Amino acid sequence: FGGTAAELLYFPVNSDWAIGVEGALIRKREYSGLRFAKQIRKLNGFVRSYQEYKGSQYFLDLYYDIPAINMDIKVSAGQFLAFDKGVRTEISRNFSNGFRVSLWYTVTDAQDMVNGERYFDKGVSFSMPLEIFYTNSRKDKWGYGMSAWLRDVGIRSNTGQSLYYTLKDERN
Length: 172
Hints:
globular; two-stranded antiparallel sheet; mainly beta; about 55% strand
């Protein structure tokens, strides 16, 4: 995907909470070259069809930090890439060595079915600092996340590191 995104954040100094809004207008990229696709493939069972697609996503984000146990909570409400609207809750635990583990659960108005039940996106991710591999101080991190199923429900386009985590890291 490619496009444009913007984020506004209110994060008072010495506070444990923050509130922000973010949005993005995106297009799907062609598989080769630098062009953007005007249509995306859609499967109806095993039958392929194509539909026009201009992606957009927007969210109201609420952040709360619990410093006593090194956890933070993020709740995002808005529209996801597949035009489904809903709420994503993410709980993260930070360790003193820089390792971070996160769990998320997303509830949307999408009607995807998996094994006869309505599917809600859920998963786990972690990130670790790469500083242990260098002889000097670095802020680089490596992360990985996985979801129970690869579905379109509750999916967001990556628009870079959020302002909240950038400011939180700098304040610490």
